TrEMBL record:
Recorded superkingdom: Bacteria
Keyword Flavoprotein: yes
Domain Photolyase/cryptochrome alpha/beta: 3-132
Protein name from the UniProt record: Deoxyribodipyrimidine photo-lyase type I
Annotated binding of FAD, by residue: Y226, T238, S239, Q240, L241, S242, F269, D370, A371, D372
UniProt-annotated site: Electron transfer via tryptophanyl radical, residues: W303, W357, W380
Gene Ontology MF terms in the entry: deoxyribodipyrimidine photo-lyase activity; DNA binding; FAD binding
Keyword Lyase: yes
Needed co-factor(s): FAD
Length: 455
């Protein structure tokens, strides 16, 4: 009687370049794919609404593709350790394989489960698949993690080149045993009352086939202009790969090697992949990245009492600041925001509205389809000045100057916030704060941080 291998899918919802899947297939036993929706284990952060929408589509695509190749995808809900153990018993499995995660709670779950399964005689192995470089392989000469991007990326590039991606398997033997699975629709990942996802459906098609098609399109049509126009939100010259990488519909190894084959000099784009690596490495060493200032002297920043109306105006794109409002509405409609505008909207929240960066991070976590446990808090702390390789804490993005520089013809603003167009009769909202006065208040607050750092 065959003893199946279980491939526990997590943030790697793909068939190509999936080392865990490859290891299971090479055992010459039936393979059962498993995805666990874990919203109960201690320390696991529940997904935001936009991420849940994406997950539904990506799981549907993965399940269909596995079935086409003869395999199966089992869906279960509950604490990961309990569910995986149950499925091992239900299937009579003799091996479990997964690709590594790097958040603190996730690593603890995986380590404890690996120990428990091995004690029961189950073969268990984990693999490097979500990062180009494992965090423990990139350290300073003194054996500490890097805190500045440039030397970090230089150290990465000095290591052996990332491995070549693995090909997609031609078939997946799912065996004859049927293991009970939840129905994906019963998980209610899609919004219904109200259904706010119309814009997401217009903008995106989750799943590995669409991800690979987008990578090919970007490399063919946009890569040449990327370095020159990537900061111009109206140009549309971005890879649009961030949700694909977040959900693992593409591996970074595939993106890396395909990019080099397309243009060996594409250093500007590849350094953005490096920034993603830097965020993940930072999370590995600082698992509380989403809740605590990386530089603890920033705990001294004197946040004023929250004005809920200001937070709500920012969330809804009703601040009276054209570029900020355009960005926040793009986010709500499409589940993403141009990176330059992300920095501007985040700076405005923190340094003009004087609202704690953690509240902005939480909003992005709920509204971004690419909300990532490393990149989202890492980038918010970068803007706040409290994080790794942060912009100088006193740097405050002036949204008006940013608009003049990167959206000089107002095309991006006109698309997402048309009331600011010169030829419209619609009355735009008044700014909810004075940019100059609020900037001064922020700098005064940072003086407290400077004093704390000296004490």
């Amino acid at each position: 009687m065959p003893h199946p291998s279980i491939v526990w899918f997590r943030d790697d919802l793909r068939l190509a370049d999936n080392p865990a899947l490859r290891a299971a297939i090479e055992r010459d036993e039936p393979v059962i794919g498993l995805y666990v929706l874990d919203e109960e284990s201690e320390g696991i952060r529940p997904l935001g609404g936009a991420a849940r929408w994406w997950l539904h589509g990506s799981l549907r695509s993965l399940g269909e593709r596995l079935r086409e190749k003869g395999g199966q995808l089992v869906l279960r809900r509950g604490p990961s350790a309990r569910v995986v153990t149950e499925v091992v018993k239900d299937a009579g499995a003799s091996a479990v394989f997964w690709n590594r995660r790097y958040g603190g709670a996730e690593r603890e779950i995986d380590a404890q489960l690996k120990t428990a399964l091995r004690e029961d005689g189950i073969e268990v192995a984990s693999f490097a698949a979500s990062l180009l470089f494992e965090p423990w392989t990139v350290q300073t000469g003194s054996g500490t993690p890097y805190s500045v991007f440039t030397p970090f990326w230089r150290a990465c590039r000095a290591l052996p080149a990332p491995r070549a991606p693995l090909p997609e398997p031609r078939e997946v033997d799912g065996g004859s045993a049927k293991v009970a699975s939840d129905d994906l629709d019963d998980w209610q990942l899609l919004p219904t009352e109200p259904d706010w996802a119309a814009g997401l459906r217009e903008a995106w098609e989750p799943g590995e086939p669409a991800a690979r098609a987008r990578l090919r399109e970007f490399l063919r049509e946009d890569l040449d202009d990327y370095a020159r126009t990537r900061n111009e939100p109206a140009a549309g010259v971005t890879s649009q790969l961030s949700p694909r990488l977040r959900w693992g519909e593409l591996s970074p190894h595939t993106v890396w090697h395909d990019t080099i084959e397309a243009d060996g000099a594409a250093g500007r784009f590849l350094s953005e992949i490096g920034w993603r690596e830097f965020a993940a490495h930072t999370l590995f060493y600082h698992p509380d990245l989403a809740t605590k200032n990386l530089h603890r002297e920033f705990d001294a920043f004197p946040w004023p009492r929250l004005k809920p109306s200001h937070l709500e105006a920012w969330q809804q794109g009703r601040t009276g600041i054209p570029l900020v409002d355009a960005g926040m509405r793009e986010l709500w409609r499409t589940g993403v925001m141009h990176n330059r505008v992300r920095m501007v909207t985040a700076s405005f929240l923190i340094k003009n509205l004087l609202i704690d960066w953690r509240l902005g991070e939480q909003w992005f976590w709920d509204t971004l389809v690419d909300a990532d446990g490393a990149s989202n808090p890492f980038n918010w702390q970068w803007v706040a000045g409290s994080g790794a390789d942060a912009a100088p804490y006193f740097r405050i993005f002036n949204p008006e100057l940013q608009a003049k520089k990167f959206d000089p013809r107002g095309e991006y603003i006109a698309r997402w916030a048309p009331e600011y167009r010169a030829d419209t009769a619609e009355e735009p909202p008044e700014p909810i704060v004075d940019l100059g006065e609020s900037r001064k208040a922020a700098l005064d607050g940072y003086e407290a941080v400077k004093r704390a750092s000296r004490s």
